[in-house]
Inverse folding.
């Protein structure tokens, strides 16, 4: 028997950062994101030899240990270990024997929610294998709790819900901790046009999102006015993007992205750097009407809205920076799992 699962990565279009505590706890947050045809995959093969094996194929890393009720997290494949520890603690109450293999279509630290999506995929495989009674909200919240609370990894809440639910969603993060996922009924032709015009560009760099997020959080805790007002503007941006996508006024997306980018850079000095600024200005000069960096900032993927057929000039102009663009489509399906 083989158990498989996959969960989609996401492109954050608006509101990024407002799902992160303490801002979301103080003011509430709002984000708009869409899942794409890049995935995190997990495969479980049950074993009968009393061993546990973790294999991260994309990272060329592996770990094995005799079956136990808890595996110490030590910085090596901690996401795999953390999910297993929680599964045993909350559900099986006894050790398991299996091989867990994973693969992610984008590098860690690239800004598409890879770590959180991987946790969702691993949880989905265990839920399929053990027939766990987890609905979408249950699974997304459990993934968040494992990564942010149990493993103490910095970050927000949007990625776990995006990977679980899939599709184009407007998400609300309430001050009491509640998360509401509002699926948007965006017409297929709007999504196709958005995917055509929105260039996904990988800078060939990754970053430590936790240090950027901690700097952002520090500014909020210290009540730095410019940072908090910028967060308020990003929350407004999510509403603007929702209205634009639903009504089909796609020509406004570039200016809305640029509005968000200018405000996001006010959150902390670590959001951008000279290379990112030069990439952004080059894209604008080549025909893009706006863009942003995906995720916390500092590196990874960037997106640029390129109306009509300007995408080709933008892609050509960005070649000098040594990065590459990635083809994708928007996907409506979230976490899926199956048994062979």
């Amino acid at each position: 028997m083989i158990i498989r699962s996959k969960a989609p990565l996401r492109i954050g279009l608006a509101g990024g950062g407002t799902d992160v505590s303490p801002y979301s706890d103080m003011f509430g947050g709002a984000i708009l994101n869409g899942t794409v045809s890049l995935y995190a995959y997990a495969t479980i093969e049950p074993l009968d030899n009393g061993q546990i094996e973790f294999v991260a194929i994309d990272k060329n890393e592996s770990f094995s240990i005799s079956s136990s009720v808890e595996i110490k997290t030590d910085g090596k494949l901690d996401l795999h270990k953390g999910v297993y520890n929680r599964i045993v603690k909350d559900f099986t109450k006894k050790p398991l024997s299996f091989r867990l293999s994973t693969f992610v279509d984008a590098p860690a630290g690239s800004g598409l929610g890879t770590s959180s999506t991987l946790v969702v995929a691993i949880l989905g495989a265990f839920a399929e294998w053990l027939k766990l009674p987890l609905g979408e909200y249950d699974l997304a919240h459990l993934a968040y709790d494992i990564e942010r609370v149990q493993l103490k990894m910095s970050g927000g809440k949007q990625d776990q819900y995006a990977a679980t639910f899939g599709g184009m969603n407007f998400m609300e993060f309430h001050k009491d901790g509640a998360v509401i996922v509002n699926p948007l009924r965006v017409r297929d032709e709007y999504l196709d046009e958005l995917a055509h015009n929105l260039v996904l560009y990988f800078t060939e760099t990754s970053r430590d999102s936790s240090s950027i997020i901690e700097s952002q959080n520090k500014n909020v805790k210290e009540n730095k006015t410019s940072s908090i007002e910028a967060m308020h503007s990003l929350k407004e941006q999510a509403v603007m993007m929702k209205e634009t996508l639903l009504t089909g006024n796609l020509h406004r997306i570039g200016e809305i992205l640029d509005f968000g980018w200018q405000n996001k850079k006010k959150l902390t000095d670590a959001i951008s750097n000279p290379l990112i600024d030069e990439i952004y200005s080059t894209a604008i000069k080549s025909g893009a009407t706006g863009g942003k960096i995906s995720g916390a900032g500092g590196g990874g993927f960037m997106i640029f809205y390129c109306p009509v057929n300007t995408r080709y000039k933008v892609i050509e102009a960005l070649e000098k920076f040594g990065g590459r663009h990635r083809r994708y489509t928007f996907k409506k399906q979230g976490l899926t799992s199956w048994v062979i």
About this structure: The chain has two domains: 3-184, 188-326. The chain has a mean pLDDT of 94. The CA atoms of residues 283 and 314 lie 5 Å apart.
